[in-house]
Amino acid sequence: MDNKNDLRNALGCYATGVTIITTSDQHLKPVGLTINSFTSLSLDPPLIMWGISKNTPSIEAFKYRKLFAVNILTNEQSELLKIFSTPSIDKFKEVPWEMNDKKLPIIKDCVANFECTTHSVFPGGDHDIFVGKVIEYYYNNKKPLILSRGSLIS
Questions:
Q1: Distance between CA 89 and CA 17 in Å, rounded?
Q2: Cβ proximity of 11 and 1 under 8 Å
Q3: 93 SS3 class
Q4: Is residue 144 a contact partner of residue 71, using CB atoms and an 8 Å limit?
Q5: Nearest to 137 by CA among 69, 65, 77, 81
Q6: Mean pLDDT by groups of 10 residues along the chain of 154 residues
Q7: Contact yes or no for 24/68 (Cβ under 8 A)
Q8: Which residues have C-beta within 8 Å of that of residue 17, sequence separation ≥ 6?
Q9: What pLDDT is recorded for position 1?
């Protein structure tokens, strides 16, 4: 198990949805990144879970704010995957989004959006695992964006 790339290829056999996790920093500037490690955890209480690399520059905003949104992409939003997985000064520039009343950036037209408070954060190797308590959610019947083996599935 010395080959991380080979392990990544094996793990990539599991198809996942693609999400963009968003929050605001201490100056209320929107922050977001592509995540495919999102999963439901509990219905009672309503908890979700996702992981972020400890080396990601935006990790401090998520730890500071303790409020975040999970934006599950539709199969028509594949360009957002690349925008939010590439370092940039303003990832939100060309993206339809709005700042809600909690000063939380919400990406428009997603298949689902979950607003969450941070319930707990756990170390997980080279990642931190965020557990969020769902405080609000919205969804529709659009088709989700699916990723498997490094490719998008329509």
A1: 25
A2: no
A3: coil
A4: no
A5: 69
A6: 76 83 95 92 96 93 95 95 89 95 96 98 94 97 89 75
A7: no
A8: 36, 38, 72, 73, 144, 145, 146, 147
A9: 53
User: Phi and psi at residue 62, in whole multiples of 5°?
Assistant: -70, -35
How much is the pLDDT for 154?
Answer: 63
Tokens 């219905």, residue?
43
Tell me the CATH number for domain 4-153: 2.30.110.10
Residue spans per domain, the chain? 4-153
CA–CA distance, 4 with 125 (Å, rounded to integer): 13
Residue 124: which of 50, 58, 32 has the closest Cα? 50
CA distances from 128 to 3, 49, 76, 122 (A): 22, 10, 30, 6
* 8 Å CB contact between 118 and 49: no
Closest CA to 48 of 29, 31, 72: 72
What confidence score (pLDDT) does residue 15 get? Answer: 81
Tell whether omega for the bond before 30 is within 30 degrees of 0, i.e. cis.
no
State the Cα–Cα distance between residues 80 and 82, nearest whole angstrom: 5
DSSP one-letter code for 74: B
> pTM above 0.85?
yes
